[in-house]
Fold these 4 entries.
Entry 1:
Amino acid sequence: MDPSSAPLTATWPNRNFSARKKVECLRTFFRFAQASGWITDNPAAKLESPKVNEPPVLPFTREEWVRILAACDQYQDNYGHTGQANARRLRALVLLLRYSGLRIGDAVGLSRERIADGKLFLYTAKTGTPVYCPLPDWVLSALEAAPRTSEKYFFWTGAGKLKSAIGDWQRSFGKLFKLAKVPEGHAHRFRHTFAVELLLAGVPMERVSMLLGHSSVRVTERHYAAWVRARQEQLEADVRRTWAADRGASEGTREVHGGSAFVQ
């Protein structure tokens, strides 16, 4: 194919929603430029939106979760020692991510003051109402028991850039998932696991959306619609299981009452 005929977006390093957002910004800028009389034609008018290929939502399975926790106990520091300070901090971070739904950046930069009375302050909603997420006792205990590098933060010293600290923890997760034999492991799957477990437990989509801090419930639906269907399939299977115990009684009643479909 002639490179000159390739779409402009093909040369961008941006992909998926980042690329789409970039196109929207270009369109907005050139519309303004045209409306202001700076240009006569809008060169971005015919610019096509890039295709978005979203990776599937993959929560951790129960078996993977067990292996990840076990790998935390086997995690070695740079000197080959297990169970040392970094391993305990890593386990605490794993538990926090799984039971809070936080993104890794928010978790690494989490300050201690945001946890009080067993609840994690997530954010303030548009209505001005604070949104909290309760944390299990074992998560709170792991956070308190993790060796401190800062009086203010759980997983960051507060010195240097937060982005660098996030990179360090991501490398630790790469090592952890390899140890746990979870080849498709990444930190965001803890967030997916948190959301999917809530949906499968029957928590309404709008409440899950609030806990995840999405800008609208439509964002949540886009990512987790398949798991709402899975919940419906669960409910249908639960109903069908109740039929087995009633089948014999129902058939016997029809014989006695001349084929009536009602169970007396």
Entry 2:
Amino acid sequence: MRGVDAAMMAHPFDGEACTMPALATRHLHITFNGKASHAAVAPWEGASALSAVIQTFQSVDAMRLHVRDGARIHGIITNGGQAVNIIPEKTECQFLVRGKTSKYTHEIGDRVLRCAEAAALATGTKMSHQVVGGYKNMINNRAMALHYASLSESLGVRTPEATPDTPTGSTDMGDVSHAMPAIHPIFQVARRGEGSCHEDAFVKHTDSEYGYAAMIRVAKALAMTAYDLLADPALMKAAKNEFAQRVEN
């Protein structure tokens, strides 16, 4: 990204941290095509695409034991058939695979696809898939993050680095962090355990006086971090040197 030296954003949460161990993702859309037949009159003439998608989920669930700590696999069936009295000829499902590195996430995604291929073979159906997106893991620039943390503390809130076992999601900021020095702090708008992001209970916390005060504080800390990056060549150099030594995987 020409002309851009660094990037920052923040996300509301039920905790406070100057770094975010966001996971890489791979988003898979899988389709099974079978053969329709009357489910009562001649089910033996059909090839059930529904059986294929169910078998895929069963195989993926069996696979979970063998993935590394921190990896996540979650999926939904978006099309389970067309009529209850017809052997389903087409089904569709989606999986979102997450891992601590982009490389490992792709490995898990390939294993999910092999589960689907095996299900198709077992049920006499055909499988096709699309990779519909995915994010890279977040590379937190500690030079920037620790500077942000010191400014946050000057505004009255301690913002430590996230621990390795911090529950986390994924973000397109991960892709940005592979292109330039970047940070993605999280800030507290709800007490621990009272509501996490993407939950209905979290809405009331974001739309509260406490939530708005936290947002304004974080905006100030980010703005001051940006100012210091522009005004202090040593800070910018430290951030860029750290970025140059990053390990991508």
Entry 3:
Amino acid sequence: MKRTAIYLLTALTLLATASACSRKSNDDGTAPISEHALAPLTVKDDSADLLLTWIDDKGEAHIELRPADVPAAGRALVRVVVADREDGTHDLFYVADLTRKQDDGSYATRTIRRREWESEIEKRRDAYLARTAPPGAASGAGQPGSGPQAQGQASGAPTVIIYGASWCGPCHQAADFLKAKGVAYVLKDIEQVPGAAAEMREKLARAGQHGGSIPVIDVRGQILVGYSEPALARALARAPAGTML
């Protein structure tokens, strides 16, 4: 039952996000947000068909299905997508503050622009890198892709599938690592590529996992959640030649 609900949520959300692929925003960011605010949204602990994205202090995005599953560190700013709503999947996002419950038991929500959400991720990632990176070290994040990308030409190496998003820094770091190793990879944007989100969820379900962070990386059936250079290197070492897409 739980797996069916996840599939339904993904399929309905993807129908909404896929329709945005063929059009570009005319919003130059100068109009007051009140002129474009989304319709009110009620989010409660028992609300169904939610896709909740929170950001940790490293700038990595994580996905949960229930408000209760969002940890305290990420509850103040959570992106909300509802399966039967197209609103909140294009240039304007719903975000909820899960630290503040109102009198009726719902959480406060508001509208922000996509670029504001992406900027928050960049800000947290940059702050983390500034705290931890050696002097002069580069972040390793590549440029965002707009669709599936196949790169790397090493003979006999497996093709790796990276499920991520244009704003996901660790997704690009994983791609940069594979590129440096000469390993072919395909980058599938779960917000822009039809079928990518459902495909990712199906693989997570088969692996007995749900939620977690992006990227989700498939190394010939080995499913990695989040980017870890040592874990990815180990998966590559275990992977036979070829791939199962």
Entry 4:
Amino acid sequence: MARRVARKAIFAAELPWTKIREHARAGAVSLLPIGSTEAHGPHLPLNVDVVISVEVCRRTALRLLARGTPALIFPPIAYALTEFAAGFAGTVSVGRDATLAYLTEVLQGIASQGFKRIAVVNHHLEPAHFRVVHQAAREAAAKSGAAIVVPDHRWGATASQLGEEFTQGGSHAGQYETSLMLAAAPKLVTERVRAKLPDVPVDLPAAIKAGARTFADCGGDQAYFGSPSRATAREGRRLLDILAKATEDALQTMS
């Protein structure tokens, strides 16, 4: 019962407007999850990035609440700039300018309701998209006066804790993301398919730097890389805790 009450207390979409106003007046931190709608191999659903970003926000909010900081999770952004997976069924990519304008206005909208500290929790790692997320945060902060942070787990100490597959760049729908999904939403993982998938050892950043423009160009003709068959829920829980702590730490740097 305690967990259910805590969950109800932190998702904005589940609250009436009067409660949102109370959270804003109490100085709550707002968390905006960002993902994408794109192919993640034959064993994972299209909403992998959304599921992961929401779960990281949930765990972050609970960490904040445990130390007395109110937190509120806004509904996730489910569409993004997703060009590398555009050739696979179900993938929906939104152009750069439209993505930038939309994200900027969403962040300004949250700030306009009185939320002065916002964390943008993005787990769609396509480089061009992540650049847009950072730019939207800067523009929204400049226009609204809110403090907006974008925790970026691709670099530094956090990245080194996320495992060899992540740091070497083959983490799309592989061991890294599949482990996260086994921890966050195991019913969405097609186990009978996952268990039979061969490894696809590709360094995605290197392939992109060499001129690849699609997952097929990178050698991922089923829209996955790495080793999904090696994923475990235990590893996923470890990764989620690292990502939540990194998000909490980023919030502590805000003025």
